[in-house]
Amino acid sequence: MFRFAVATAVLGLLSSPALAGNPVAPVIGAAPLMAPAAPVSDWTGIYAGVTLGTGRSDTSLGGYGIDVALDHDTRGLFLCYRHDVGAWVLGAELAYDQADVDGLGEPARYDLSVQAGYDAGRVLPYVALGVAKLELTPGDETGHFVGLGIDVKLTERVVLGAEARRTWFADDFLGVPGADMQADTLLMRLAFRF
Question: Is the pLDDT of residue 10 over 60?
Fold first, then answer.
């Protein structure tokens, strides 16, 4: 029994940390700091979509003292290419709209524009500049426009947007000397990226 007690005491002393060397507190380093990952969103690609719009056009018949204001609704299709270059997105767009203008029927409109926008992740505010061709019964009219818009990615392939656009048709609009027309349109846009 005495030998058992001595053997147990010796094993207990040999296994104690005091005999295992100098006791050193473990060094716990600070965890490496990791910057949060920036949201990755790329706007580069081909987009095809539909538009619905509403607005008002004001026509001035020059020296005749006649001003005509007409409401209009539009529906159309567009095809666009955008290229994401870091913080900026550049693009070009071709669009076709069919308008329903009070008293004038349904003239067709063709637009060609360039766009520049700021890449804010899933949101893209942009400005558009372009030319427009309006097909009317007396003859075609060519004008120019500026648009301010915002697109929001619902998914990486589906984009919902809105654009406010002002178009000017001047220089003898409808063949009337001194006549011009200005149209303001608010467009809702739904696009699919390929």
Answer: no
Q: Which domain holds residue 99?
A: 45-193
Q: 70-110: per-residue pLDDT in tens?
A: 888 999 999 999 999 999 999 999 999 998 887 677 889 99
Q: Specify the CATH number for the domain of residue 81.
A: 2.40.160.20
Residue 32 lies in a domain: no
Instruction: Tell me the three-class secondary structure of the chain, residue by residue.
Output: CHHHHHHHHHHHHHCCHHHCCCCCCCCCCCCCCCCCCCCCCCCCEEEEEEEEEEEEEEEEEHHHCCEEEEEEEEEEEEEEEEEEECCEEEEEEEEEEEEEECCCECCEEEEEEEEEEECECCEEEEEEEEEEEEECCCCEEEEEEEEEEEEEECCCCEEEEEEEEEEEECCCHHHCCCEEEEEEEEEEEEEEEC
Tell me, what amino acid is at 168? W
Q: What is the rounded CA–CA span in Å between residue 86 and residue 153?
A: 17
pLDDT computed for residue 5 by the predictor: 53
State the total domains in the chain.
Answer: 1
* Segment 12-39 mean pLDDT: 59
- Tokens 């053997």 — which residue? 7
